[in-house]
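Section 4.2 – Deliverable D4.2 (structural model, holo form)

The reporting period included a commitment to supply a predicted holo structure for the target in complex with iron/sulfur cluster. Inputs used:
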Amino acid sequence: MQELFWESQLRFIHDIFPPILIGTAVFLFLFAALFGFSLYRLYWLSRLGKEDFGWVQVWKAVTRPQIGKWSRQLGDIGTRLKTTLGVAFAHIRTLSEAYPGWMHFLIFWGALLLIGGKIVRLFSYTGEITDPPQAIWLYASLISEIGAMFIFIGGGLAIYRRYVLKPPRLDTKPDDTLILGWVFLILITGFMAKGFRIATSEVRPTDWAMWSPLGYAFSHLFLIFPGNLENYVLVWHRAIIHTATALVLAAYVFAGRSRLQHLWLAPINIFLRTLRRPKGALEPIDLEQAEKYGVSKIEDFSWKKLLDLEACVRCGRCQDNCPAWLSGKKLSPKKVIQDLKTHLHETYPTPFAIKPLENRRDMVTEAVTEEVLWDCTTCRACQQACPIYIEHVDKIVDMRRHLVLEESKFPETLQDALKGLGTRGHPWRGTKLTRTDWMKDLGVKTMAEGAGDIEFLYWVGCTAALDERNTKVAVAIAKILQAAGVNFAVLGEEESCCGDPARRSGDEYLFQTLCQRNIEVLKSYNVKKIMTACPHGLNTFRNEYPQFGGNFEVVHHTQVIADLIRQGKLKLDKLDGLAIAYHDSCYLGRYNDIYQEPREILEHTKGVRKVELSRCRERSFCCGAGGGHMWLEEPPDKRVNARRVEEVIQAKVDVVATACPYCLIMFEDALKAKNVEETIKARDISELVIEAAGLKEVPRASQE
Ligand code: SF4
Ligand code: SF4
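Output (structure tokens):
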């Protein structure tokens, strides 16, 4: 029986394998040329970006990483490699969603095992294969079959999800159906070929067939052939084996033009992701040198941003995490990327064919639309979810910059707020408060009064100082610091807006003006460390001010409070029976990775039942106020805060704890709108702390 099997293998090696090799060699040139053309097209498209993209630059960046703008995109190779391999092989990010994650894991690892096993067997055929064959030949066979099994299961899950479950985030194009069908065709034809060989050898479950369980199963299909089937089957064998090879080679070409290009574009895009600035920092505009502000046509994007468009696999994870989309607005981050990609391709349909500007759709107002651009709260949930590290926020802000700085087009209510930043130094039009009203009778010192040797400057922020509700938070923080004996001071009337709303809204000019003015004031007092109560201020001071020479150590009030508790300077008692859910602010959590300290403070508060909201930490859901939205009118039925409050209501808590003045306002508004303000309260963490520490009635302590 073994001899019969071996005889069949030899026939395969001598009669069938050489024609395949010759055919492959003949057509390889053609396939390589077609694939090369696809690659060249992508390379050419990437070169359209405003930063040059060429092999010379790549070579220079790799060999001399200390020079040139390319080095900024290629520095820190170790981190880049680690993440790329982590995402590709260990599926970090992809596995954050179980069904699609494991589905992709099975297909990916299945393909690797299948191809790896085939390559080993290929070299066994062309090298010296013995009779009986070497153990490695048999192991390779089994590994290939395990790989194929993975692909069958993963592919089956993909088909069930795409055609039966049909999650709204997936749009099915002919490409998707073709690829799935193709994969199954390749697998089935491959196993039919193997099944034929086993069938003709009359092998039964012996040691040999055990190494090819799937092939053996397929062989049973052909046992229905009548009588002496060998010649008959051999014809089919040849036809099938050539068909399978042709399918594999065609898939190789197809990979250059279809969704399959993510096989190589995804790792490249992950490797080249932006590391040269912190994730909380937008790219600055050189206001003196720039020929235009912002992005109005596709060529204004950098090559990396164009690469992002090509790399997107339409998985829809970004859309599924976008608060704007989930609250019924037009913005879908997936659609923004796809619309820009379509625009790129319709503008440059083939290499060397450029559409004249006058025949193009306007990118900002037609391909994407202004409404979509203003829907974004810059919460970064899309980027956090994207398995291939596509950067949406930069592109959206780039286009807003064009609207604001070049066209003076922005929503009316936002216009008022930005005007206020320029004239009053804060966006709160109509407020009756001054920057120092909240600190009356508290004994808080200002820098101008000569605060002496302070541990840090408390940057109160526009909202905590000028919004009635938030002044209570400003007071609570000051009381906590005083009770713990911390020496701090504020700027008082010298404080201005940090500039975050201006920058996120696209008014880079206003931002840079505010930023430079603030840096001057801070430097004049020789400030080294800043504590903010607002995550937006924290992000801007920490990540964006260094772009303009403002280098300060910046901490958030929850970090300071947690530290005071750890040092034993602040003792918390009970908040009996309260169920509290902490809401992660986007700019504290996703942008600055501060997740633990607010939770640690609640841990130290006895009698509290801590509840996690269904979307928390990295996946937290925006309150709806970032990116200038604090001052944008939203239709009542499409409010992001209303959507978030539904999750709070579902969590059945007494308190939703925040650590951001915007979040506090948004929660209180939404709780009122849902008529639950009597049963669920919104509180800043500092307000819970003064209650638990018994400081509510203590106006001042150590600063007298
Ligand atoms: S930043 Fe937030 S609001 Fe803007 S597209 Fe991404 S997920 Fe949506
Ligand atoms: S941008 Fe990223 S998350 Fe969104 S569809 Fe494309 S690949 Fe998926």
